[in-house]
Amino acid sequence: MSQKTGAIGLDYLRETRYSRESLRAEPLVQYPRSPLYKTYPPETQRLPLPAVPASFRRDFWQCVKERRSQRDYLEQAINLEELAGLLWASQGITAVQHHFAFRAAPSAGALYPVETYVAVHRVEEVPPGIWHFQVPQFALELVTPGDFRRSLVLAGLNQQFLGTAAVVFIWTGILGRSLWKYRQRAVRYLFLDAGHICGNLHLAATALGLGCCPVAAFFDAEVEALVHAQADEEVAVYLAAVGKLAK
Ligand SMILES: Cc1cc2nc3c(=O)[nH]c(=O)nc-3n(C[C@H](O)[C@H](O)[C@H](O)COP(=O)(O)O)c2cc1C
User: Fold this and answer.
1) Residue 4, in any domain of the structure
2) What's the CA-to-centroid distance between 68 and ligand 1, angstroms?
3) Domain of 113: which CATH number?
């Protein structure tokens, strides 16, 4: 074990480095394994998502070139197909092989510790509220109905575009899905997974001509309260606002 520096981030990175010795060492703690999918009671309101239309195709290289963090949105709704496209491109199941349901973004060990919610402010056919993305059914599940624009602005250190966006993606982490395998190093992978997911979302939004901005500055506990995160198990990781842009 390396000498502690007193800076927790640095100490964490040092103490979770792989070395030939650490890989050989016997694990000291056994972590219970959390389920791959978060489930809600059967009476939860559900909204199936439509398939992603072929008309969404757009040149990949152009999207990479055009992608920018955009924060000025029009007061217009996005439609349900656009929301479905964004969810699919970020966390949709794209292949099933050998009992693994692989998703659009890579995940360490295909353990998928990142959970997706959307705060719907203005999406056609979707009532405003906090919705959970149910990955295997490609559906939304209503967590709490209502207008969460102000709560998100406040939770996001007063960043106003979290209220003017059409939808805000909220990603949490359920470390119990990956701690059993990667132990403390799982925290590194959780944030790498989230980066991949948000990268996909950002490019998908660009492909749809929508504006997107990642957000990591927020009050963690307030974000966790908004999605009713499971105590001691689920932590806020990342947000992204998406909205219509002026042409
Ligand atoms: C991890 C991460 C956190 C970010 N957090 C915020 C944020 O809280 N607020 C914000 O306005 N932009 C945020 N951004 C967007 C950056 O400011 C933006 O990516 C950067 O200025 C580069 O611009 P570009 O994305 O247009 O290339 C974040 C980006 C990343 C990758």
Assistant:
1) no
2) 9
3) 3.40.109.10
Nearest alpha carbon, ligand 1 atom 3: 216
Task: Determine the structural domain holding residue 62 and report its residue range.
Answer: 46-244
Question: E strands along 13-79, which residues?
Answer: 46-48
Helix (H) or strand (E) holding 211: strand 210-215
Ligand 1 interacting residues, C-beta cut-off 6 A: 68-69, 71, 159, 213-217
Report pTM. 0.94
**Residue 183 CB: number of other CB atoms within 10 A?**
16
What pLDDT is stored for residue 27 in this prediction? 65
How far is Cα 96 from Cα 45, in angstroms, rounded to an integer? 27
Check residue 6 and give its pLDDT: 85
Strands 93-97 and 234-244, bridge-based pairing: unpaired
Ligand 1 centroid to Cα of residue 121, in Å, is 21
User: Residue 149 C-alpha to ligand 1 middle, in angstroms?
Assistant: 20
Residue 34 covered by a domain: no
Give domain status of residue 19, yes or no.
no
Single-letter residue type at 156: G
**pLDDT-flagged residues of the chain (< 50):** none
Pocket test for ligand 1, best of 158, 159, 171, 213 (most atoms within 8 A of CB): 213
- CA–centroid distance, residue 216 to ligand 1 (Å): 8
Domain count of the chain?
A: 1
Residue 82 inside a domain? The answer is yes
pLDDT on residue 75: 95
What is d(CA 128, CA 119) in angstroms, rounded to the nearest whole number?
7
